[in-house]
Write a structure and sequence with these properties.
Blueprint (H helix, E strand, L loop, with lengths): L11 H12 L18 H8 L19 E12 L6 E13 L4 E5 L6 H9 L6 E2 L4 E4 L6 H7 E4 L11 H12 L6 H14 L20 H13 L5 E4 L8 H16 L3 E5 L5 H4 L4 E6 L2 E7 L2 H10 L12 H15 L1 H12 L2 H27 L1 H9 L8 H8 L10 H16 L3 H9 L2 H10 L9 H21 L3 H7 L1 H9 L5 H30 L6 H25 L3 H17 L15 H5 L2 H14 L13 H4 L7 H25 L6
Helix pairs in contact: 1-10, 2-13, 5-6, 5-7, 5-16, 7-8, 11-12, 13-14, 16-22, 18-22, 19-23, 19-26, 20-23, 22-23, 23-24, 23-26, 23-28, 26-28
The structure holds adenosine-5'-triphosphate.
Length: 685
């Protein structure tokens, strides 16, 4: 257990005196493994020198562009509680730090210290809270607009969002096809993928299926590195990674951080949150930013400099154990201080606030900003268009987090490729692979034939004798055919909910528009459903000996399946979880069966429920099938001497018109699903 941090209560003069020694470390080489970059602030010059600023460079994927990230006075609050108990809680308090080109910066701190919040803010992905007007989050000295964030900042979420059926190579190429302009040659995209596979050491698993929770695939470390590769496809100048080593053994964790280090060496500014890395892995980071309860406890070089800082500012602090890494030590002493009380918890941050190290860091950030401003000015002069865009850029520094999110979240409509290209790529890579997988294909082919088998064997040739008893059986056959089409799509819901994290990440990355995803999903399912529906409807129609037009029977069956498919998509996009979706769709479909006209004829439905029958798409399906079957002379007398269509209030129905109504339902549900996919947010950050 660490000693109580008595020294932390020392006044600022103590901190100031002792810091001078530690602060000298800013000018020396990083104590971490490897050689680059030579000085902590070397990137500032690089960024000023390349003349390409975040606001002025051309489209994403441009190699050699460098971007310095600077944070000044970043203060962020979220609201908690309801009604009169509502209050603001401070998650980040006056944070100042920087990540310069070529630097790998570790963001460290006890659980709940605000590490992910900081990354989310940097990426513009925070969906709630307010950023203090004095906060400045700048890329090359400029508040970024949505397009700049999308182009220059890559974000690797903690949980992998990879497509289980693809291999790492296919996953990267698929992302490249959507993230780069459609006109850029496929060979160039392949070369980029080759380069990333090499940088991330994915050669051995590049042709192995990624797999998922239930199917064996690549290892955890390989999946993490592939996840990083997906974010690197657009060649962002800044990469943010949230706990890239979580859940990995020490060897895999080291390989992931080594890969990040390689990426940093190519000029990327990299910030990564990390938890308890092994000492040799942590030594790969150039700099570290330590947060405690949202305040900066240390920002400086990793390795001996950090050790020296803590030793000189807190002489009463326990010594580092022989086998303990500096990251574990910092985490242990800050977490213990959190448990000891508010004064102890604040002591580390208070000491840093009063230290020369902080003053030096702030001066260096100012210098980096000045250098970036010179580069920006040159770039602006070179491009009037760039200048106009710059003028329009909303000030991220003085905006609320909701606005930040609006800039890059729901408003994020910009994609690198047109919608039809997105549809082609989704279909080619995702559907192309799904169609070859028996786990995906067989349930969709076999399940429609189960009700067909039952209908055919139970009602074999029943249509040969059109008497009152058989007419009732045929009405039941048509009702069951409708019901099976409605329930058949329910199996899609779990797949949709499970895929949501991938959809949200791909949308946030600007890979495609909601309408593209919707069209891909609907066409992927309906292509299979159309093929299966032909033999299924032929079997029922001719073996049960139904009458009327087979084409109409098939079309009604197909359109009903289509409506239920879109409905499954709608429920999947609206439901917050698998449990909700699993309960909502069967409940809604069962309610529709009551009002479909078979169980209760329309005129016998209580008046206050008739509206439900009017908007019940199954009523139009079954009604159209009945009108097709019993039209004209076939409208035989059934129940109580009444012709069957009259009994069911279907005597005036034109089956083609009712099929048209079904098509209208299909369009309406498709529109609603599009709105749901575009607006409903399930991830609150
Ligand atoms: N939108 C929000 N609304 C309310 N509280 C939030 C919100 N976002 C984050 N928090 C809270 O802020 C604190 C910091 O969260 P954050 O995820 O940034 O911590 P962290 O340092 O990344 O923690 P960990 O290491 O455990 O992942 C936590 O207590 C979290 O519950």
């Amino acid at each position: 257990m660490p000693l109580a941090i008595k020294a932390s209560k020392a006044d600022s003069s103590l901190a100031g005196k002792s810091s001078s020694k530690a602060d000298a470390s800013l000018d020396v080489e990083s104590g971490s493994a490897g050689s680059e970059p030579p000085s902590p602030w070397a990137g500032a010059a690089a960024c000023a020198g390349n003349g390409k600023s975040a606001g002025s460079s051309a489209g994403g994927g441009e190699q050699g562009r460098t971007v310095a990230v600077t944070l000044q006075h970043v203060t962020f609050d979220v609201s908690e509680g309801r009604g009169r108990k509502r209050h603001w809680r401070r998650l980040l308090d006056d944070v100042a730090a920087a990540a310069l080109p070529g630097q790998l910066v570790a963001v460290l701190g006890p659980s709940g210290s605000g590490k992910s919040t900081l990354l989310d803010l940097l990426a513009g992905r925070k969906t709630s809270g307010r950023l203090d007007p004095g906060s400045a989050i700048l890329l090359n000295g400029q508040p970024p607009d949505a397009a700049t964030l999308r182009r220059d900042v890559g974000y690797v979420e903690q949980k992998e969002t990879l497509l289980p059926l693809l291999t790492p190579r296919e996953m990267l190429l698929y992302t490249a096809e959507l993230k780069h302009p459609k006109d850029s040659p496929l060979d160039a995209k392949r070369r980029l993928v080759d380069e990333l596979i090499e940088q991330l050491s994915l050669e051995d698993c590049q042709h192995t299926r990624i797999g998922g929770a239930l199917s064996r695939g690549i290892s955890g470390g390989e999946a993490k590195r592939c996840n990083v590769g997906v974010s690197m496809i657009a060649r962002p100048a800044v990469l943010l990674t949230d706990e890239p080593t979580s859940g990995l053994d020490s060897f895999s964790a080291h390989s992931v951080v080594s890969a990040l280090r390689t990426l940093a060496a190519s000029g990327i500014s990299l910030l990564s949150t990390i938890h308890s890395p092994p000492p040799d892995t942590f030594s790969l980071f150039h700099r570290c930013l330590v947060l405690q309860k949202g305040r900066v406890v240390y920002f400086g070089d990793n390795g001996p400099a950090a050790e020296q800082y803590f030793a000189s500012h807190f002489p009463d602090l326990r010594c580092r154990r022989p086998t303990e890494g500096i990251a574990d030590f910092i985490l242990d002493v800050t977490s213990s201080a959190n448990k000891q009380g508010a004064a102890e918890a604040a002591a580390f941050a208070d000491a840093y606030a009063a230290s020369d190290l902080r003053a030096q860091n702030e001066a260096a950030i100012e210098a980096a900003l000045a250098a970036a401003a010179v580069a920006e000015q040159a770039a602006r002069a070179a491009s009037r268009r760039g200048s106009r865009r710059h003028g329009r850029a909303a000030s991220l520094a003085s905006t609320s987090a909701r606005r930040v999110q609006k800039l890059v979240g729901l408003d994020k409509q910009g994609t690198a490729t047109p919608w039809w290209w997105g549809l082609y790529v989704l279909f080619r890579y995702r559907s192309g692979r799904a169609y070859t997988q028996k786990d995906w294909l067989l349930p969709r082919i076999i399940s429609p034939f189960i009700p067909v088998f039952l209908l055919v064997t139970v009602y074999w040739s029943v249509g040969d004798d059109l008497d009152a008893v058989h007419a009732t059986s045929i009405a039941a056959v048509l009702f069951m055919a409708t019901t099976s089409a409605a329930y058949g799509s329910m199996g899609l819901v779990p797949n949709l909910v499970a895929e949501r994290a991938i959809y949200l990440r791909e949308r946030a990355d600007g890979l495609y528009l909601p309408v593209t995803y919707l069209l891909y999903k609907v066409s992927e399912e309906l292509l299979v459903a159309s093929c299966v529906s032909i033999p299924a409807s032929l079997l029922v129609f001719y073996l049960v000996r139904l009458q009327g037009s087979w084409a109409l029977y098939w079309l009604v069956f197909l359109v009903t399946t289509s409506v239920s498919t879109v409905l499954a998509l709608l429920v999947g996009s609206l439901s917050s979880s698998m449990d909700v979706a699993g309960a909502a769709l069967p409940a809604y479909t069962t309610a529709l069966l009551y009002f479909s006209g078979f169980l209760i004829p329309f005129s016998k439905i209580p008046p206050w429920w008739r509206w439900m029958a009017v908007i019940d798409y199954l009523r139009y399906s079954w009604g159209a099938l009945m009108a097709n079957q019993f039209a004209g002379d076939r409208n035989i007398v059934a129940f109580g001497g009444e012709p069957i269509l009259n009994y069911y209030d279907l005597d005036t129905v034109n089956p083609w018109h009712w099929l048209g109504w079904e098509v209208i339902f299909f369009c309406a549900f498709t529109g609603l699903t599009w709105v749901a996919l575009a607006t409903v947010q399930h991830q609150r950050r």
